[in-house]
């Protein structure tokens, strides 16, 4: 069974909780592409959080508020866990389910080994329903998808690259 597309209401709800907790993060992946008005469809929100100790503490509190649980194929509700900062510091990625939908944490996205620090330098802020959402630049979204090289990323690239070329012509 395929997952339904994650709608903007769920994206905003997740980002609202993260921002209310003061989490430093950048939205990446398919949701970032969609927030750049590319029409890209996706089933989860990918975020790249800062790895600072204080930010991981804030992220831990936000994950608790979201009711985040690691996703597993055998249990749609996910499994219980304690999102302690000491656990989060050792992660590269984590796929979660929250009360507002799927959330993936990716601390070092493809093409950006320094993660948040590298992406934050070029992020754009997209406002939805009174929430300022920090979003990876479209250039960085394209770079990450190129470097990841997964079939779904390769399939998305022609549309994203065309959108990027169109945007550059308008500048």
Keywords:
globular; 171 residues; alpha+beta; single chain; Beta Polymerase, domain 2; 19% strand; two-stranded antiparallel sheet
Short description:
By secondary structure, the chain is α+β, with helices and mostly antiparallel strands.
Q: What's the arrangement of secondary structure elements?
A:
Blueprint: H1 8-20, E1 25-28, H2 29-35, E2 45-49, H3 53-66, E3 69-70, H4 85-88, E4 93-98, E5 101-106, H5 115-120, E6 124-128, E7 131-135, H6 138-148, H7 151-170
Parallel strand pairs: 2-5
Antiparallel strand pairs: 1-2, 3-4, 4-5, 6-7
Helix pairs in contact: 1-3, 2-6, 6-7
**Side-by-side strand order of the widest sheet:** 1-2-5-4-3
Q: How would you state the average pLDDT, rounded?
A: 92
> In percent, how helical is the residue content?
40-55%
User: Structural class of the helices, strands and pairings?
Assistant: alpha+beta
Work out the helix count. 7
CATH topology: Beta Polymerase, domain 2
Q: Rg, please?
A: 15 Å
Tell me how many strands there are.
Answer: 7
Report the order of strands and helices: HEHEHEHEEHEEHH
CATH architecture group name: 2-Layer Sandwich
Total number of domains = 1
Into which percentage range does the β-strand content fall? 15-25%
Name of the CATH first level: Alpha Beta
